[in-house]
Amino acid sequence: MQASPVIYPAARLTGNKLILRDVEPGDAAFILSLRLDPKKNAYLSPVADDVARQAAWIEQYQRGSGQAYFIICDRDLNPLGTVRLYNASGASFEWGSWIIVDGAAVDTAMESALIIYDYALGHLGFRDSHFEVNRENRNVWAFHERLFGARRVRESEASYHFELSHEHILAAQQRYRRFLPQPVTVERAAAPDQAS
Of 17, 86, 96, 115, which one has the greatest count of Cβ atoms within 10 A? Predict the structure, then answer.
C-alpha cells in the first residue's frame, strides 16, 4: 500500500510570471499588513497586531512539518500575497491563507492557484483538494466553483466546505494553461527527512 503524500515546503516555486518563496520571519510585517487590512480581513480569523508574535509563529512553522507557507512574488521578488498548503487527509490537501495585495496583476490569482495545484499534484503526490471558504467571501468561492469546478460538500453557519477532484484539477490546468504554460520549477523539493 502506498503511503499518503506529505506536505512540505519548497524554497521556491517558479511559475510563468510569479515566484512563490517559502515564508521567513522577515515577512511578518508584510503578512500582518495583509491580515490587518480592513478590506481583506473580513473573512479571516483574527490576528494580533504584533510583528514579533507573527515572526515567532513563522519560526515555529519553520521547525514544524505538515504545511507549506509561501509569499507570492513577482519575478523581481516584490511580495504580492500569501498562500498556504496544510491539513493533508489521505491523497487530498487543503489550501488557504490566500491573500493578494490590491493592485496586483489581474492574473495573479489564477497563476498562484495553478502553481499550488502543480506543486501539490506534480511534486508532493496529492490527487485532490479540499478547502473552506467564508460564506460571505463570494468572489473566492465563486472563483473555485466557476473556474475550477469545486463542489460544495457541506456548509456551516460561517463557511462553505469544498472538494475539488483530481479530474477537475487536471481539466483546469489544461483549460488555463496560458497562465502557466510550463510546469513549475521547484527548488528544494525533497522532504526534510529525505534531504541529503
Answer: 115
Put residue 66 in one of left, alpha, beta given phi > 0 → left and psi -120 to 50 → alpha.
left
> What's the confidence (pLDDT) of residue 179?
97
Q: Can you give the length of the chain in residues? A: 196
Question: In terms of pLDDT, which residue wins out, 194 or 115?
Answer: 115
Q: According to the model, what pLDDT value does residue 9 have?
A: 93
Q: Which residues pair with 85 in a beta bridge?
A: 68, 95
Other CB atoms within a 10 A radius of the CB of residue 77 amount to: 11
| CA nearest to 116, candidates 171, 76, 70, 160 | 70
| Whole-structure pTM value | 0.91
Helix axes 108-117, 166-175, angle to 10 degrees: 130
pLDDT in tens, 20-40: 999 999 999 999 999 898 887
